[in-house]
């Protein structure tokens, strides 16, 4: 059952990539064989096993409760020159699985927006896997409409980053899968350069690094 679920996730993500990529990238995706999909499914399966082992280790330590959203909010910095909106957060238990979420948005004088979201999925491995499925694909594409790239992120162990630019709508986004547990997303409107989004994300990571590396 787990194997079929993994393949479903992989196929669904490949379809999403097909829809979002340009023509040349679509042609490359057309060439992906079922064997390659199965191979990537095996990779996802192994990474899920790794995440499950980490979860079991946390359970042995008694670490089964997601980080309180109020703590997560302390990792989100203010942004100079931007007006902060009311921060939001929630601690959740769904079917026995614990996770928490914290978010904060900012606007500037031109009504551009920065959105920062931070999650601790702790015992919710299914949500963590579906949110970070992209890390199992060697994505790197660039065309007139968009840019996408997945790469390893060294500042936190077992971590990956997915960078994306919507050149048409001028929106940049960076997503970080951190140590098979935490997920960080920063989205900035009115930009076609990733530097600002990455700078904000790095501030969040620096503030929470000791926790993210546990």
Model description:
The protein is of the alpha+beta class. It has a domain at 64-212: Protein Transport Mog1p, Chain A. 40% of the residues lie in helices and 29% in strands. Strands 1, 2, 3, 4, 5, 6, 7, 8 and 9 form a nine-stranded antiparallel β-sheet that branches. A hairpin with a 5-residue loop joins strand 3 (97-107) and strand 4 (113-120).
The largest sheet is: 9 strands, antiparallel
* Helix-strand topology string: HHHHEEEEHEEEEEH
* CATH topology (fold) name of the domain at 64-212: Protein Transport Mog1p, Chain A
Radius of gyration: 18 Å
CATH class of the domain at 64-212: Alpha Beta
The proportion of strand residues reads: 25-35%
Q: What is the average per-residue confidence, as pLDDT, rounded to a whole number?
A: 83
- Helix run count: 6
Number of strands: 9
CATH architecture of the domain at 64-212: 3-Layer(aba) Sandwich
Give the % helix. Answer: 40-55%
Distance between the termini: 30 Å
Secondary structural class: alpha+beta
**Regions with pLDDT < 50 over 5+ consecutive residues?**
1-20, 22-31
Notable characteristics:
nine-stranded antiparallel sheet, Protein Transport Mog1p, Chain A, 6 helices, 214 residues, single chain, 29% strand, alpha+beta
Could you provide a short overview of the structure?
By secondary structure, this protein is of the alpha+beta class.
């Amino acid at each position: 059952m787990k194997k079929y679920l993994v393949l479903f996730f992989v196929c669904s993500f490949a379809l999403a990539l097909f829809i979002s990529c340009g023509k040349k990238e679509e042609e490359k995706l057309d060439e992906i064989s079922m064997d390659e999909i199965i191979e990537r499914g095996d990779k996802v399966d192994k990474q899920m096993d790794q995440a499950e082992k980490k979860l079991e280790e946390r359970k042995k330590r008694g670490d089964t409760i997601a980080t309180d959203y109020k703590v997560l909010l302390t990792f989100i910095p203010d942004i100079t020159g931007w007006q902060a909106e009311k921060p939001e957060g929630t601690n959740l238990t769904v079917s026995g699985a614990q996770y928490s979420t914290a978010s904060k948005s900012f606007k500037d004088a031109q009504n551009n927006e920065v959105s920062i979201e931070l999650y601790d999925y702790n015992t919710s491995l299914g949500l963590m896997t579906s949110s970070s499925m992209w890390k199992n694909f060697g994505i790197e594409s660039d065309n007139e409409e968009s840019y996408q790239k997945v790469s390893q992120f060294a500042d936190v162990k077992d971590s990956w980053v997915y960078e994306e630019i919507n050149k048409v709508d001028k929106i940049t986004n960076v997503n970080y899968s951190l140590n098979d547990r935490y997920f960080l997303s920063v989205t900035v409107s009115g930009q076609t350069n990733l530097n600002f989004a990455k700078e904000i994300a790095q501030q969040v990571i620096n503030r929470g690094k000791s926790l993210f590396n546990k």
